[in-house]
Design brief:
This protein is an alpha+beta fold and 143 residues long. Helix content is 22%, strand content 22%. The longest helix is centred in the C-terminal third of the chain and has 15 residues. It binds coenzyme A.
Amino acid sequence: MAKGSRRSWCPCRSVAMIVRPARQEDIPAIIEIVERCGLRIDGLDYSKWSGVVLVAVRQDQIVGFISALPGSPYGVITEIGVLPEYQKGRACHKLMESMELLLRSLGMAAWAGYVGDIRGLDDSMKKIGAESTGVGSMWLRRL
Ligand SMILES: CC(C)(COP(=O)(O)OP(=O)(O)OC[C@H]1O[C@@H](n2cnc3c(N)ncnc32)[C@H](O)[C@@H]1OP(=O)(O)O)[C@@H](O)C(=O)NCCC(=O)NCCS
């Protein structure tokens, strides 16, 4: 999309991006994304991730990640985040596309995910064909 069009222009658009499985050494970059995207919940340990984690990489820099817990009757996408300076550069699209491919290959028929209302992502969710199951809150119980 050209500079000055509907969405703000991101210089990262012209640079190739790959999505790959996360490795242990990617954890500090993932934690940085969690913090800078405002996804962090106080007191939780973000150095350990269960399930599947993919990262988006541009020019050797991790710019985004997505995590999911495979399961039945549906898998759960637990987090997705893209560094603010790389947002609107299609990283989220690429991460979702890759995760959906992976979840389908694992035999999953659907995924669910919590999206806070402050995120303003309703239209994007509808556009990809997702449906809201109702309005509510995510509840966290510390063990
Ligand atoms: C939401 C987020 C992951 C999108 O990443 P991104 O790489 O900028 O998204 P993309 O460029 O691939 O665009 C994906 C779609 O989301 C929309 N979108 C991106 N950021 C948005 C924002 N802040 N508000 C509303 N819509 C947004 C885009 O317009 C696009 O929609 P389109 O397909 O209709 O054009 C990113 O803004 C982010 O990390 N936000 C903070 C964390 C967050 O909200 N996580 C998800 C909820 S838990």
